[in-house]
Design a protein that fits this description.
By secondary structure, the chain is α+β, with helices and mostly antiparallel strands. The chain folds into 2 domains: about 1-245, Nucleotidyltransferase, domain 5, CATH 3.30.420; about 305-430 and about 470-500, Nucleotidyltransferase, domain 5 (2-Layer Sandwich), CATH 3.30.420. About 40% of the residues lie in helices and about 20% in strands. The strands form 7 sheets. Strands 17-18-16-15-21-22-23 form a 7-stranded mixed sheet, sandwiched between helices. Strands 3-2-1-5-14-13 form a 6-stranded mixed sheet. The protein is globular, with a radius of gyration of 22 Å.
């Protein structure tokens, strides 16, 4: 038997076929664009995303004729909103989470309902990333679309409607919308009424414990060439699925996912809704693992900053790596100093993420001299990104959230140098799972449990997630980096007034 994890990301989708112990049998992926028709807008053609994702499903199922899938689940980007008509056809482009047009709507929410009240109710700080202000923007600016829409869906429920005929959303993803009562475990009806949003125009919530939400439509199964039924299970937010797929299934464990952005997800037994987390713009929401919650931090730059450095300043290394089949990053970092560099990098090339969420901040590199080498600068970028990670972990710790271990996934998990920096600077043990495609694996585990292949997610994770690589903080490096981190904390206050004048 096999299971499928289908990941719908911001810039691409991926379908992976797994066996029941987490082994990858086949995979397929596609890329798609982000549309920016106006400043601050970020949209996507949801119909195109569906078509490309369906192609990936067809490809992986085609390779598994002797071992067809019995179930699938979705891991999806969060907060995007898709107005659809009665047939489930999009009425306009999806408005993505990274869209920042909703400043006025957030000001209204803060004044009308109060930022503290909203956070205490929903676990989501007031921010342009949320779904709620996007719906308020549609009400005001596109009344025709608002009137014609039968439902307002996110990517999970949009896809599940296509796959099964009924729009269903996981509690995990629903709790990222700022329209979900985190304590009650249901849509926040009083909040929706105040905002003139009818609950019936939102997707039905899946069972709180997850599980099956429908069966793949017969016509779609025929398209895939399948003669057996395929169960569709509740999935969730991509970062929450990645947390599950990396083994974060109990309180005190945390995942650091380093891709385009860098995200930390820390598992908790109960939602920690305190003032420090709200001021740090930390979102708190439901995990895909029943009875657990997650606190999420975000650094917009992440691996994107290292990629910028590679593409802009390391063309010869790129060419050499293509010709030799070696890794460009290994070549770039070869010759980096063994200890801390004498540079200081503020990695706010896309503004500051949590705990500041300041879009006016910019990147900076301090301490350059004629003796600075390319390898030193590359390592300094990794140090700056890791100092930013430490800021967020310290905020979580100061808020009373325990962090016993980091589970590293994403492209950044391939760099031993970067991993060791993380464990030394953040002073926490770190492990790397064998399968770093954690979002797809997490979705597949949800599907496997729903199909009865495992009695619970704990058993599924123990069978499918192993950790061949483990790292501990090195005492000497910890001592060396601590004063550098204290110095790093002065950078943003020192430069922000200057950056706002640039």
């Amino acid at each position: 038997m096999s299971i499928v994890g289908l990941d719908i990301g911001t810039t691409g989708c991926k379908a992976i076929l797994f066996n029941t112990v987490g082994g990858i049998q086949a995979q397929s992926s596609r890329e798609y664009n982000i549309l920016t028709p106006h400043p601050h807008w970020a949209e996507q053609n949801a119909e195109q995303v569906w078509q490309l994702a369906w192609e990936t499903l067809q490809e992986v199922v085609h390779t598994a004729k002797k071992n067809p899938p019995v179930a699938l689940a979705l891991s999806v980007q969060g907060e995007a909103i898709i107005p659809v008509d009665a047939q489930g056809i999009p009425l306009r482009n999806a408005i993505l989470g990274m869209d920042t047009r909703t400043t006025e709507e957030n000001n209204w929410l803060s004044q009308e309902l109060g930022a503290d009240n909203l956070f205490n109710l929903t676990g989501m700080p007031v921010h342009t990333i949320n779904t709620l202000p996007k719906l308020l923007w549609l009400q005001k600016n596109e009344p025709d679309v608002w009137k014609r829409a039968a439902q307002f869906l996110l990517y999970e429920d949009f896809f599940i409607r296509r796959l099964t005929g009924k729009a269903v959303i996981s509690h995990c993803l629903a709790s990222r919308t700022q329209m979900y009562d985190l304590q009650a475990g249901q849509w926040a009806t009083d909040l929706l009424a105040h905002c003139k949003i009818e609950p019936k125009r939102l997707a039905k919530l899946a069972p709180p414990s997850g599980g099956a939400v429908g069966m793949l439509r017969d016509d779609l199964a025929d398209e895939l060439g399948l003669k057996t039924k395929v169960l569709v299970a509740a999935g969730g937010h991509d970062q929450a699925c990645a947390a599950l797929g990396s083994g974060v299934i109990q309180a005190g464990l945390a995942m650091v996912s380093t891709g385009t952005a860098e995200v930390v997800e820390v598992a908790m037994k109960s939602p920690a809704l305190n003032q420090k987390l709200r001021e740090g713009k930390i979102s708190v929401y439901r995990h895909v693992v029943p009875e657990l919650y997650l606190a999420m931090t975000l650094n917009h730059s992440g691996g994107l900053l290292l990629r910028w450095f590679r593409d802009q300043l390391c063309q010869l290394d790129l060419e050499h790596s293509r010709n030799s089949g070696t890794d460009a990053y290994d070549a770039i970092l070869a010759g980096a100093p063994p200890g801390p560099t004498d540079l200081m990098v503020l990695p706010h090339f896309a503004g500051a993420g949590t705990p500041l969420l300041d879009t006016t901040s910019k990147g900076a590199i301090l301490g350059l001299t004629f003796s600075t080498t390319k390898a030193t600068l590359a390592k300094a970028i990794l140090e700056g990104l890791t100092f930013e990670l430490r800021l967020n972990l310290d905020l979580l710790r100061d808020s009373g959230i325990q962090i016993q271990q980091l589970h590293a996934v994403g492209g950044g998990a391939k760099s031993s140098l970067w991993l060791q920096l993380k464990t030394n600077i953040c002073q926490v043990p770190l492990v790397v799972p064998k399968v770093t495609e954690a979002a797809c694996l997490g979705a597949a585990l949800l599907a496997a449990q729903a199909a009865g292949l495992y009695t619970d997610l704990t058993g599924a994770t123990r069978a499918a997630v192993t950790f061949p690589q483990q790292m501990l903080p090195e005492e000497k490096a910890v001592r060396q980096y601590e004063p550098r981190f204290q110095l790093y904390q002065q950078l943003y206050p020192l430069l922000i007034d200057f950056h706002r004048q640039c």
